[in-house]
Structures are given as structure tokens and as C-alpha cells.
Amino acid sequence: MRRIFAWAVLLFLMAPMLAVVPLSFSGSEVLRFPPEGFSWRWYVAFFASDRWLLASRNSLIVASAVAVVATLLGTLAALGLHLARFRGRGLILALLAMPIVTPSIVTAAAVFFAFSVVGLTGSLVGLVLAHTVIAVPFVVIAVLASVQGFDPVLLRAAAGLGASPAAAFRRVMLPLIAPGVATGAVFAFATSFDEFIITLFIAGPGQFTLPRQMYASVREFLDPTICAAAVLLFLCSLVLLLLSEAARGRR
Amino acid sequence: MARRHNRLAALLLAPLLLLLCGSFFIPVARILVTAVADPELSEALPRTAALLRGWDGQGPPPEPVFVAIGEELAAALRDRRIGRVAQRLNFEQSGMRSLLLRTARAGVTSRAALVALDARWGAPETWTLLRGAAGPATGLYLLRALDLVRSPDGAIQPVPKDDALYRTLFLRTLWIALVVTAICVVLAYPVAAVLAGLPPRWSRIGMLLVLVPFWTSVLVRTTAWFVLLQREGPLNAALVALGLVDQPVQLIGTRFAVVLAMVHVLLPFAILPAYSVMKRIDPALMRAAASLGAPGWWRFLAIHLPLSLPGVAAGAAFVFLLSAGYFITPALLGGPQDQMVASFIAFFMNQTVNWGMASALACLLLAMAGAVLALARGLLPGVLSGRFRA
């Protein structure tokens, strides 16, 4: 009984996506269920649309940049936190986690307000900065989890054996934290790739990302192209999930 | 050695802290300031503002105030700087915009001429209002966000019934967040318990069914519901086929649609921490209790529930936190009666460009989130790492 209930809830979690897949292959203009006929036309329409292509490009550029910046800064910060012996270490960790627990509408309003003063709204750079803020805590937490138990004495031992600091870091520390860094990077990419509210505020039409374009399309005109876009984005998420599982498996 | 470590640690932390200061902490702090700042009058009419701050508020203000406001209004109109101060005063008292514009266009600069142009320039309330707006700070927006106003004599009182809006809004936001959280907990608990008890292979498959939607973009999932809940959509088709309804019903724009989709989006946040805690409950405890003769419900209440509670509570806190600030789902699936605080913040930022009001609402939302965090203190780190462990 309990098991049936649990599997029913799991089915409920998967159902919406599963229902959208057949609709994206519909042969007709209207989103009627069950779909009539089978065609690739909505996928063709997606790849023929300048707006969807621009949004895909923007999403890939921003998410990649966020993954690089957030992973770099987040990894450095996590190593710093690991080394730190001063009081206030807990406070810094709490500060770094703040963007996760702050309601995203508040972050979005604050960032919009501040960026409009310095002219960072309507630019991809502004998007990357804002997305990095909400993505970086995940990197810090993931890397911190992987350095737990790493003894700095190992670094000194490497130095004692004649390794330069850079070599000691690369040969001793990096292999240990690599899975955490990889997990953080995937999370950072996914966080930016999904982000919507900040983008809604600070992106102009030239900076629309995929979620932003999807929102615009739902509000303006509903046609099965949206289902095709949803399925494509869904596939992207699956790839990201597999990547994160692979990174976790290496731990 | 520890000193050198600390210096290196500071060096490693510095870049990220700098970035967060510039793109998060300072912007959020500015929001807090903007909620109580009142710069419009003193920016557009600096001399008038200075004179009003020096005025004791008794009787009509002295003649120089009339001269100053007349001259400065005309100048502000010429330089197109009058819009913001007009909007600011009009927000507090409707009709002020037209009064300012009329006076600016007339270009009159004496007490007699101003009063002759519009009797309101002779009324003490007008000047009390202007004097209140001349200061560097105002409680106007925060009070309004609680459906309160300051009357001309300075007392704080509720706004007229027809203008009351925000208390209902906050109560509605809290209510929707509570309902969504409660449903999520009720659904998540058995799922997590069953998954934690399954043999590894099946539990992996089950977890995948949680993780796949968890990783799917929120907008994709909300859009999927938008499609599903259409009049011609699958859900209506199923309802009609089952004979539950005669003809398709309107689902988009209802509270039901909002709660349904929010539960769907947030449920994994409740399942994952509960699962990671339950996975660590030693099954030997339950077996021991059983061998000592404790019946099933007693084993559950005495062992499983208390041991799993931290994970469940952490998940519930996170779901509540996320749903209280929700924007997308009500915006796409709800009607006007389902909009939450976030929608109003967006409205004031984008539509009416009333940053004071947007900031005041954001402050109250932030305070609400802070209260939840304080209640759930110590639980959240568990949730966050649960995202990786699960």
C-alpha cells in the first residue's frame, strides 16, 4: 500500500514531462491530446527560429562563463575556508550561503537596481555576474565536502620532498578535490541554465536565455514549438544529471 | 604556521567575497536603504526641501517657501526633472501630480498667486505632506506595505478599506506557502521512507525518478503544466474520458493549478533531505524494537519518526522558503487572485517603477525568510549538502 503510494508520487513527478514529449511530435497546430499524426515540424521550427537560436546561444554562453567563473572563485574560496583557522570562519561560510536562502525575487530586484546604476543591465556580462552569485555557493559546498579530511600536512610533506607549491597543489591536492570541483561546475552550469527571475529583470531582448524565451512564448502565443523546446531543455537537464552522477561516482 | 595559513586563506577568499559584495551584499543593502529613503523632493526641489526642513510646521509656511517652490517647480519642468517627485507625492496623495504640473506650468512665485491658482496651496495638509517628503528618510513605503498610513497629525492608522491590499497579499503568500509545504511533506515522507527501505537497485531507479525532475528547469516544468492544464490538454481529456466532468473545465488561472505545479516543482526539495536522513537510520534498531514486541506504529513513532525528523524539517523549511518567494508559477498558471508578494515586487520594479514600494515589500519578504531561517537554524546545512549526498 505504502509502496503503491510512493510509486504513484514518483509517477506524478515524471508525468508532466512524459506527457509533453508526444505533444512535441504533434502534426497539428493546436495542443490537443492525444496528438494527431507524427511530425518533426516543431523541432524544425525551433531550429529555424531566430529567437530560439539566440536564446540557446545566450544560455550556452552565460552558463559556460558562469561555470568557469563560479568554479574558479568557489574552489579558491573553499580551499581558503579549509585552511582558515581564524574566528569568523563560520560567519564567512554563512555569508557565502546567503544567496541560496535569499528569496530569488529579492536578489533579482536588488541586482536590477544596482546594475541599472552602473549600466550592467541588458548585457551578458551582467547576467554572468548575477548568475555567478547564486551558483557559487554550490561550488563552495561541493568542494568543501571533498576537502573535508584532507590534511594540509600532506602539502608540507610534498614540499619537504622537493615539490614546488604549484606542483604540490597539482599532484597532491587537485586529484583529491577534483570530483568536488567537477560536481560544483556542473551545478553552477545547471543553476545558470535554469535561472529565470534575475534574467527576467536584467536581460533585454538581446540577452534572452532559454527560460526567458520560454516564458515569453507561453505568454504570447502557445504553439507546439514550446513543447519541442521543453523536450530539448529536458534532454539538456538529463545530460547535466548524468554528468553530475559521473562526477559523484569518482568520489 | 597558523598565521601563514590564515593569510593564504584570506587571499583565497578575497576574490569571491569581492564579487559577492559588488553583486549581492551591496545591492541587497541598497534595497534595504531604498525602502526607507526619500530622495525625490530634495533632489528635484533642493531649496524648497531645505526651507521645509527648517519650518516648524505651525500655520502656513513663510513666504520664501512659496517663492522657492514656484521657481523650482518651473525649473524642474523645464529640465524634465519633475516626473519622479510628482510620482512620489502622487503615490502618497493622489492628485498631487496634477497640482505640481499645473503650478509648474503657471510659473507663479508668490503665496497669493499660488493660492489663487489652486486653493490646495493654502491648505495645511498639503504643506505637511511636502514637509514629510523633504526629509532624508520616510516610513511611507514600509507602512503602506502593512496597509498603514500616517495621518496629517502624525498618527499611524490603517488605510481606508478600499486601499487595503498588502496584508491580504502577505497572508495569501503565507497561506499558499504553508499549503504547498504541508502537501510536500505529506507526499515526501512515505516516498523517502519507501525509497530508503528498497534494495539498492530499486532505490537507485526510484531516486532517478526524483532527480530527473529535480534537474529539469523550473520553467520547463511549469510550461509542461501549462500545456497539460489547457482546455484541450491531457488532464481535461482524461477527466472527460473518465466521466468525471461533462465538458473540459477551466484549470489555468486557478489556485488549484498554482498549488499543483508548485508542489510538483518543490517536492524533490522535500524528498531529498528526508531520504538522506532515513538512509542513515540503522535497520537493526527497528528489528530490535520488533523483537522486543513493539508493534509497527510504536516502532514508527519511537524510532523512525524522531530519527528522520531533522531531514523532514529541513526539507519543509527549504520548501517554505522557496515557495514564499515564488514568482513563475503564479505568474503563468494563476489568476489575479493567486499572485504572491514576488509578483507585486516585479510589478513595482518593472511597471510603475516605484522602487520605494518594491524595496519595502522585498524587505518584508526578507524578514519573513529570516524568521523561517531562524526557526530552522542548524537544519539548512543538512539540506544543502543533501543535494550532493542524495
UniProtKB/TrEMBL annotation, chain A:
GO terms for biological process: transmembrane transport. Residues 56-244 form the ABC transmembrane type-1 domain. Pfam families: BPD_transp_1. Keywords: Cell inner membrane, Cell membrane, Membrane, Transmembrane, Transmembrane helix, Transport. It is a multi-pass membrane protein. The keyword rRNA processing does not apply. PANTHER family: INNER MEMBRANE ABC TRANSPORTER PERMEASE PROTEIN YDCV. The keyword Kinase does not apply. It comes from Humitalea rosea. The chain crosses the membrane at residues 60-84, 91-118, 124-147, 176-202, 222-243. Belongs to the binding-protein-dependent transport system permease family. This is Putative spermidine/putrescine transport system permease protein.
From TrEMBL, chain B:
Belongs to the binding-protein-dependent transport system permease family. CysTW subfamily. Residues 170-376 form the ABC transmembrane type-1 domain. Gene3D superfamilies: MetI-like. It comes from the Bacteria. One of its GO terms (biological process) is transmembrane transport. GO terms for cellular component: plasma membrane. The chain crosses the membrane at residues 174-198, 205-229, 249-272, 311-334, 355-380. It is found in: Cell membrane. Its main location: membrane. Keywords: Cell membrane, Membrane, Transmembrane, Transmembrane helix, Transport. PANTHER family: ABC TRANSPORTER PERMEASE PROTEIN, INNER MEMBRANE ABC TRANSPORTER PERMEASE PROTEIN YDCU-RELATED-RELATED. The keyword Cell inner membrane does not apply. CDD domains: TM_PBP2 (cd06261). This is Putative spermidine/putrescine transport system permease protein. Pfam families: BPD_transp_1. SUPFAM superfamilies: MetI-like. The keyword Calcium does not apply. It is a multi-pass membrane protein.
